[in-house]
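Dear H.,

Thanks for agreeing to be a second pair of eyes. The structure we're designing against is below in token form, covering all 229 positions.
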């Protein structure tokens, strides 16, 4: 069935041969409520495709092209996106816990309203990555650039953020509680609405050049028995 510019496939468990046929025909496809669990979808071109409410648990998109691809409300826990070309990809809703994005190109990608506990973004390139309402507890995000980003309701609790670039970023109702932040850059970052729980006064130098609130300053100085009035 064709809807608009998409060929829509609903409520099926499509084979790789079927998907390759649509790719060969140059068709943009919308997969709705389809089961692709544990399929090897590596090295395929899914540019401009839409995956809506699909089961992608354990599926592999290693080396695939996912430029402008959209994932809406999908279940993809344990999936693999290693070395995927995924610029301007959009993930909205769903569960991508423990998913691997190592080496992926995520420039200009958007992730919103999504669970990504334990996700691994090691060696990913993600300039312009937009995050909103994302659970990234225990996630691995070393060396990611969030420069100039507006981060809204992002939970980085216990995440690996070593050597990330947060210069000029704005944190809105975010958590950095107990995150690993050695060698991060925070110049001109606005941390006034971030949870900095677990940060010790001896670690405060990591936030050199950042903007914090009087309350946050008071909590840090409170470790010395001082009060900020």
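And this is the sequence the design step returned. I haven't edited it by hand at all.
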């Amino acid at each position: 069935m064709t809807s608009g510019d998409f060929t829509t496939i609903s409520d099926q468990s499509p084979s790789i041969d079927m998907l390759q046929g649509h790719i060969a025909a140059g068709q943009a496809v919308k997969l709705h409520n389809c089961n692709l669990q544990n399929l090897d979808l590596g090295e395929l071109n899914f540019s401009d495709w839409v995956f809506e409410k699909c089961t992608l648990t354990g599926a592999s998109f290693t080396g695939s092209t996912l430029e402008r691809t959209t994932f809406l409300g999908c279940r993809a826990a344990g999936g693999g996106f290693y070395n995927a070309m995924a610029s301007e990809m959009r993930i909205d809703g769903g569960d991508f816990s423990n998913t691997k994005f190592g080496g992926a190109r995520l420039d200009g990608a958007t992730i919103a309203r999504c669970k990504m506990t334990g996700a691994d973004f090691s060696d990913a390139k993600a300039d312009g990555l937009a995050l909103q309402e994302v659970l990234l507890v225990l996630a691995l995000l070393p060396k990611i650039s969030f420069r100039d980003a507006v981060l809204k309701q992002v939970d980085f609790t216990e995440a690996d953020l070593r050597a990330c670039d947060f210069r000029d970023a704005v944190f809105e109702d975010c958590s950095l509680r107990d995150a690993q932040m050695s060698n991060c850059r925070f110049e001109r970052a606005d941390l006034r609405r971030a949870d900095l729980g677990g940060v010790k006064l001896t670690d405060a130098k990591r936030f050199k050049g950042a903007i914090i609130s009087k309350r946050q300053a008071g909590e840090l100085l409170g470790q010395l028995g001082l009060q900020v009035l």
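Two observations from my side: The chain has a mean pLDDT of 91. The first helix runs from residue 16 to 24.

Warmly,
E.
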